[in-house]
Amino acid sequence: MEGLSYRSIADYTKAKEQASAQPEVFWENIANQFEWYEKWDKVLEYDFHTPKVSWFLGGKLNITENCLDRHLKTQPDKTAIIFEPNDPNDAAQHISYSELHSRVCRAANMLKANGAKKGDRICIYMPMTPELAIAVLACARIGAIHSVVFAGFSATALAARINDAECSILLTADGGFRGAKVTPLKDIADEALTSCPSINNCIVLKRTGQDVSWNNMDLWWHEELEKVNDNCPAEVMDSEDPLFILYTSGSTGKPKGMVHSCGGYMVYTAYSFQNVFQYQKGDVYWCTADIGWITGHSYIVYGPLAVGATTVMFEGVPSYPDYGRFWEVCAKHKVNQFYTAPTAIRALQKHPVELVNKHDLSSLKVLGSVGEPINAEAWHWYDKHVGKHNCPIVDTWWQTETGGILITSLAGVTPQKPTYATLPMPGVQVVLLDNEGNEIEGETEGILAIKHPWPSIARTIWGDHERYKNVYFSAYPGYYFPGDGALRDAEGNFRITGRVDDVVIVSGHNLGTAPIENALNAHESVVESAVVGFPHDVKGNALHAFVIPNAKVESNKLTDELRALVSKTIGPIAKPDRIQVVSGLPKTRSGKIMRRILRKLASGEYDQLGDVSTLLNPEIIEEIKRNS
Ligand code: WTA
Questions:
Q1: Is pLDDT above 90 for 534?
Q2: N or C of the chain: less Cβ packing under 10 Å?
């Protein structure tokens, strides 16, 4: 995909100029690099007020044709996926483009044989094995809409997502390996499926070999594959047909099923992958995310495969068998581009640097960061010990909703600046707004907003277009509002300062405080609760829950039960670090909880509480301070 690349600042500047002068011509030229069964009639139609966005209208394609079939002509034997298993003693697998094509087609036929057809929703709740990527692509092959649920979510969270999208098939595994732990995925799925009437079949991959219970609708993956062949022509999809749903947390209890469409998502993920990481033929690229998150969708599976790259999939965790595992894997597979999250860097930074230095990292050319702001210390550690001051670092800002990276430097092409995501990609129009929604210029701080659509913007929230409008397009009419604040320097570089809503990013995971409060409130001894984030040196942020009990309770017992309840309702990632039992919460006279004050209290910033005299119950502040 040579035509996608800007290799110099001159190319980049030219692209930026064209993108702002003639955005449609700009995107059309990029879209022309792909294989379409039929070209579009119109490049873009949009209205941020309705809101409605459509790209490459009338275009017909299948994304797997671009990710797989196309490469069979030029590089059938090239490795598409390197699978690095959890246990370093197990052999890595190298899956070529032709093998991947065959396995995807066979899995697609397995889905069809079990009744799946275009437009059906298929839920995928699987560990990080090659079959997860194959499952995603198999859905895309037949035009079924995949909804991947991260394999760390609980049965309740899984069921809620299956029911929201009314999925007809669940793809899962007996269990999953993650470090020293084995997650009983099938047991969790069984529990979820007791309340999922839309599911007709549950197809189970054998991964751990553990004992599992077996129900009427259960089928073994390997047995189903044997019944079908690998001839599966790709379904012809409209550019705007949905490709997948991926749930992300919001400010209310219900997760938002972000819907991405086929054409625009393909164009943008490939374009951004190519330019941000400056991938070159023969390079080995590794993104350490899980495919259960958007980073894995866009930059393990679709983006890299669309440009014909070699992408590493890692089943394990950075700490197993020791804190040098990432670097061992980089050395083993001669990784050239390495993309991870600040929370992982901060965790690794706490361990002896010898764990990095003993591995040969000379293959590395580019380092990436995603998911939350990267603090200066982590940035410099990454630069010095991993990059040896020799690898550009791309700090990539984006979201589940944006589908692809929007603000970043391009490795080695545009300047980097520690802790700054730097500049918008060509074709992306980012502005800063003041609280009244006016655009503000120059070196300043404000609310991040985007003025013009880019091809991979999510098109709606599954089943709730009104909510899509309210969350992203209503606060600042005429703009897409991502929910983040940012600083801009004199050169136009952006530094993301964090969320401006009730979402907290814990270890790179987006957690809404509302669903956690709902889980806490479900406990019989809890009257009311409020959850806020506070700074944490490894996780970036951690959660502090304030809980009002309804009677005298033994507070240790209650907090243990509450942690277990959150873990069961949402998943272990949402467990609060601190649970504080209080007799009241600071409230306004209209009864609204003052989260701003709770955030300051949780962070220990007692001198920054501001005026608390207007509270309904100012005395509660002293009590919270005393007991914290
Ligand atoms: C945050 C992850 C600062 C941000 C791809 C955003 C970041 C949210 C960065 C989306 C970054 C992501 N610098 N903050 N480089 N990348 N964020 O949907 O608050 O899981 O809104 O997508 O993560 O999280 P999500």
A1: yes
A2: C
CA 484 / ligand 1 centre spacing (Å): 9
Ligand 1 mean position, distance from CA 190 (Å): 32
- List, for residues 80-127, the tens digit of each pLDDT value: 999 999 999 999 999 999 999 999 999 999 999 999 999 999 999 999
Contact 34, 71 (CB under 8 A): no
The model carries a pTM of 0.92
**359-385 mean pLDDT:** 96
Which domains are seen in the chain, by residue range?
A: 2-460 (3.40.50.12780), 503-627 (3.30.300.30)
> Helices 513-521 and 555-569 meet at what angle, rounded to 10?
120
Calculate Rg over the CA atoms of the chain.
24
Distance CA 431, CA 482 (A): 11
Please indicate whether residue 513 or residue 90 has the higher confidence score (pLDDT): 90
**How remote is the CA of residue 506 from the centroid of ligand 1, in Å?**
11
Given pLDDT bands bounded at 50, 70 and 90, which one contains residue 2?
A: low
- How far, in Å, are 86, 88, 321, 417 from residue 91 at the CA level? 10, 7, 15, 39
Instruction: Measure the CA–CA gap between 300 and 304, rounded to whole angstroms.
Output: 6
Cα separation, 461 vs 476, in Å, equals 19
CA–CA dist 196, 186 (Å, integer): 15
